[in-house]
Amino acid sequence: MLDLASALKQHFGHEQFRPLQREIINDALNGRDVFAVLPTGGGKSLCFQLPALLRDGLTIVVSPLIALMKDQVDALRTAGISATFLNSSLDRSEAAERFRLLNRGEYRLLYLAPERLMLDGFLDAALNWNITQFAIDEAHCISEWGHDFRPEYRDLKKLRARFPGVPIMALTATATERVRHDILKQLKLREPSCYVASFNRPNLTYRVAPKTAAYRQTLEFIRTRPGESGIVYCASRRTAETLAQKLTKDGISAQAYHAGLQAHERTRSQEMFLRDDARVVTATIAFGMGINKPNVRFVVHYDLPKNIEGYYQETGRAGRDGLPGECLLLFNAGDVAKQLRFLDEKPPREQEIARAQLREMVSYAETRDCRRATLLRYFGEEFGATSCDNCDNCLEPRDTFDGTIPAQKFLSCVHRVRERSGFSFGINHIIAVLTGADTEAVRLRGHNELSTYRIGREISRTAWQAIGRELTRLGLIAVDPGKFSTVELTPAGREALKSRRTIMLTKLADPLEKPARARAGQINCDEELFERLRVLRRRLADERDVPAYVIFSDVSLREMARSYPTQVADFARIPGVGQQKLKQFGEIFVAEITSFLSDHPHTIGSPAESSEPHNDTPAPGLHLTASRRDRARLAFHLARCHFGENGARVVRGAQ
Ligand code: ADP
Ligand code: ZN
What we know:
Layout lengths: L3 H9 L8 H9 L4 E4 L6 H11 L3 E5 L3 H13 L4 E4 L5 H12 L5 E4 L1 H4 L2 H7 L4 E6 L22 H4 L5 E5 L4 H10 L6 E4 L7 E7 L3 H10 L5 E5 L3 H13 L4 E4 L5 H12 L5 E4 L12 E6 L6 H8 L9 E7 L1 H11 L4 H19 L4 H8 L13 H4 L4 E3 L1 H18 L5 H8 L5 H5 L16 H13 L3 E3 L7 E3 L1 H9 L4 E3 L20 H18 L3 H4 L2 H10 L4 H4 L7 H21 L7 H5 L16 H7 L3 E5 L6 E5 L2
Parallel strand pairs: 1-6, 1-7, 2-4, 2-5, 3-4, 5-6, 7-19, 8-13, 9-11, 9-12, 10-11, 12-13
Antiparallel strand pairs: 14-17, 15-16, 18-19
This protein binds adenosine-5'-diphosphate and zinc ion (ZN).
Zinc ion binds next to α16 and α17.
């Protein structure tokens, strides 16, 4: 029996498997087909990389992103693993050389795009290689139901027939059942073991803030997180462009990324972000799968996403390394109206689906329940605990107050306006009447003569908007999903108006103004040393022309800046330090730490250590320094359930 744990430490420097990795690797080693659904950051690569090292032969990894292959192969090589890739970026002689080595069986892993693998000539050549496994990464690209459908992936259907004896592993982070079934069917997986991990990302904090002054809010958010990288998602190319320009002018290095850019411009933005030359990418949803950057610390949604699936995938790009990641959604009713307007041009069936998805998204944004639980419920997963301690609603439960008087004013204004004009108006018009705005729209309709004109002038427009949202949430008014977003009293609203019953409202909270930051997954360390190690890492990465994370992850650096290893033997115990990296970088880092300590003789035993006693050090990865309770919650249970297709055996990992 192979000792998987020591192989994990030796090659990758990790102390523990993440949920389901061990089971997946065991099945792969036993020659089974495997279907692995792990969220972003769940550690999918390891599932095929470790088996590739533990047996003879070649593992072929199919990946849709040519731009990423080099980085992945660089990371493997830095860990001392013989891997290569073939794609159009190589010149003829380089490709010929790699073929020669492949024929000699010199590689354990080969990365390829599907269109190359499926070339007839290529498959013939490949028959001579001792292929022990195909790993299909981003397997959802094969499905037309998914959002990343790639026609080239369809050819992979022929793989099974050409290589009937070679097991296939399909990997994806897709959350929808329909796409999962499609993958199983199209790749013709044989009695596969299906692994579905929990989609909970405990190290991500979810927050929603009322969008009042979007740019100022975003700038403030980024400024208060100096040195951290993040993504700002926006709805249009134009917003992405102007945001990048404005942020740059305000002293934050930012690059735009959207489908309207030339391919080389997109690659450049991505590279700059990856190599920390740009701290922020302002992007449309075109910026997706390729972001293999493990230390994205925040994802801001400047505009309302179209659906929860997309929102989950986009926020999922934060905190892949297991350290804290913050997800902030800026939300106002205007964004909903804007999206509804775009829908008008679509065919009716599409409109219907899009409206339903948007409704789910809005209800996520408006909920007072735990956001994590709400997200997980959407993907069919129950979050067991009553509080996640890591979303705005759990961290800062909002106070309620007796809002009967303003609510009555609002409801009766909706009623009066309609009574007067015979049809309904939008929320902004209602607020204009309440606050006594002297506008043409108000005068023209005689709404300045209503008894409700000016009765709400003591309350600001923003506060009225919040009250409007509250009344919608309570089901007392309803906003028409059509073009004009008009508001009407619901039967419950009419009843409340008549009976004058007490109406409790929640207080307006702007999480941006509350500095309290939850940091599940945080590793407290000596920030000054961490900075110095970052500079060293950067230099080593630049010398080798690779992204910084290829040298060491932030987790490794933070652990170094917490335990100050000054002996190579101690350094070897740092998470992420495998045999090869120890040999290559051990002495350089130990020397840097030693020199830091001689510059700061009083360091050891001060804040970094006291914040987290060493004997309480949890395993690395997702579990890092989460509270005991979180860790217990994280300890996952396996439950078997039926999936049925192709004789599949399903293992589900819950939180
Ligand atoms: P995915 O493709 O599922 O998003 P990756 O394979 O890119 O995830 O892994 C995400 C990060 O987690 C990487 O930085 C990787 O080194 C790290 N990682 C993977 N497995 C482990 C583990 N068992 N312990 C610690 N870190 C891990
Ligand atoms: Zn919560």
